[in-house]
Amino acid sequence: MAAIDVPIKVRWADLDAYGHVNNAAMLTLLEEVRIAVFWHGAGLDNTDGGFGVDGESATFIARQEIEYLKPVLYPQEPIPVRTWVSRMGGASVDIDYVIDAADGTPAVQARTVVVLMDTASMKPRRLTEAEREQLGRISDEPLTFRRS
Amino acid sequence: MAAIDVPIKVRWADLDAYGHVNNAAMLTLLEEVRIAVFWHGAGLDNTDGGFGVDGESATFIARQEIEYLKPVLYPQEPIPVRTWVSRMGGASVDIDYVIDAADGTPAVQARTVVVLMDTASMKPRRLTEAEREQLGRISDEPLTFRRS
Amino acid sequence: MAAIDVPIKVRWADLDAYGHVNNAAMLTLLEEVRIAVFWHGAGLDNTDGGFGVDGESATFIARQEIEYLKPVLYPQEPIPVRTWVSRMGGASVDIDYVIDAADGTPAVQARTVVVLMDTASMKPRRLTEAEREQLGRISDEPLTFRRS
Amino acid sequence: MAAIDVPIKVRWADLDAYGHVNNAAMLTLLEEVRIAVFWHGAGLDNTDGGFGVDGESATFIARQEIEYLKPVLYPQEPIPVRTWVSRMGGASVDIDYVIDAADGTPAVQARTVVVLMDTASMKPRRLTEAEREQLGRISDEPLTFRRS
Predict the structure, then answer these.
(1) Segment A61-113, tens digit of pLDDT
(2) Which residue of D has its CA nearest to B11?
(3) Residue C143 located in a structural domain
(4) Which Pfam families does this chain map to (chains A, B, C, D) (predicted)?
(5) FRET pair for C27, CA 20 to 30 Å: which of A44, A134, B40, B138?
């Protein structure tokens, strides 16, 4: 019942002409975080055949919200992205993320609303009980945006 | 006193493995819209020396919010991005955008909070009266997000 | 029987932390050039049902070669990419490109070897006579690389 | 005196609409390989103050050559990029790379010509003896391109 740290490698090509990670590239980093969680089960426990996005399910990004509080520079090592589930709806999940600056205060805060889709019908489908139980392992309170 | 259409070329590389414009790439398209407005004066009237981001000013993206309502496919021609100023603060501006789907209903709705910075001090600076007058030419009511 | 100029918009996100168009982003610009030629018939004459990549054909990039002679900065307007067919093989075509610097000398020279594929079999297929005639309209001598 | 394997994470956003790593994205992967070697000393021995690109030196990409022999799909784990120095000139170095397909045969072969620049003068500068010694540790025979 807690956020997890997902390590993501920033690339030099993510930097813009100011030498900071570009605002759009930041969403690509968060995409890699979601892949780690939903496809590869980071922080979850897939051994019981629960949550996982396979050929029968897909995810659709319905909404994103991101605050840029401080510039993120190029780090040599992968950066830890603090990641958790902040809401579970019938067919959707909110994922919250925080990337810290070097001084330990947040540089970026973000939220993605992910809708689970049935790939056959391409319609939203409900979360199963097994999925709720698995996502519960990385659930926590929603973050507070500064300017929402 | 109205929104403008800024034509932006989608690239094939913006598509993801589903054949849709990727969620992060969408923010790159909106970045090009802002460049057209702030740097090149699309919809503004720069002849009186008013608004414009030159060597003395820079813009910092403080926040973005984006809703993906329908997939955007690869179009041959540049797509019109409906763009307007939905709020002017002391040192910041909200830019709202809508990209329509082929059927004329919104496929994407977004908002960027842009903070004006003084490049010498790298601190926020107030909008001038000339800038407010210019941005007023492309001002309109804030859009309504579906899920905020 | 001559090269054509294909206008391509550089994006701010194509710049790297040095403020130059990134070396990999340059290949994305050339990809857009090929799409203009092969999919949309830039410089060709598609009215007789000749060359064109539709659902029955696809292109596979077999090889690329690119020389960076001068940095390419961010231009407001689309840049003309001089483009021509420098070789026609049985099932493949060489496309040559030059992007000029502001002083009119080449900043970038490149070549892509494109193989035509049959989408049903996903095997290379031979160029038709109609395609050879069409590509002949934008054919010219191969460029000379400085360091090959 | 041998090639090294540099592990590079492919991102989902590197895939194109065919589900393969995009041809231009491949050069971004190779950029990350060079950063690992030149900036962070992968395979080299920087303890004696030898090779390294710091504030006094920069690298300029003069030329790239890349062959795409098989599609590269999305792998969960970082892929090993076999990397070595195949030529040392007065002020430039050739870096060769091979990425293998799942069957162990090459999917991609590439070469980058890197020129060392003095950042003060922005002119090419000669490799030092210490740098030659260090780069010698990852030197090997040039690869053979299939179509050069």
Answers:
(1) 999 999 999 999 888 899 999 999 999 999 999 999 999 998 899 999 999 99
(2) D16
(3) no
(4) 4HBT_2 (PF13279)
(5) B40
Burial class (CB within 10 angstroms; exposed 0-12, middle 13-18, buried 19+) of C3: buried
Picking from B12, B31, B76, the nearest residue to C12 by CB comes out as: B31
Give the distance from CA C82 to its chain's centroid.
Answer: 9
Which stretches of chain C sit within 8 Å of chain D by CB?
23-28, 31, 58, 60-68, 113, 145, 147-148
Contacting subunits of B (3+ beta carbon pairs below 8 A): A, C, D
Q: Is residue D75 part of a domain?
A: yes
Instruction: Express each pLDDT in D115-139 by its tens digit.
Output: 998 888 889 999 999 889 889 999 9
| Chain D residues within 8 angstroms (CB to CB) of chain B | 12-13, 15-19, 22, 24-25, 74
Q: Are A9 and A99 in contact (CB under 8 A)?
A: no
Minimum-distance CB partner of B67 among A24, A63, A146: A63
Chain A CB contacts of B25 under 8 Å are 24
CATH code, domain carrying B55:
3.10.129.10
Give the DSSP letter of residue D14: G
Give the Cβ contact number of residue A100 at 10 Å.
Answer: 17
Per-residue pLDDT of chain B (148 residues; tens, 9 = 90+): 599 999 999 999 999 988 899 999 999 999 999 999 888 788 776 655 445 566 677 889 999 999 999 999 888 899 999 999 999 999 999 999 999 998 899 999 999 999 998 888 889 999 999 889 889 999 999 999 987 6
- Judge whether D144 lies within some domain: no
The number of folded domains in chain B is 1
The range of the structural domain enclosing residue C49 comes to 4-136
In a domain, C68, yes or no: yes
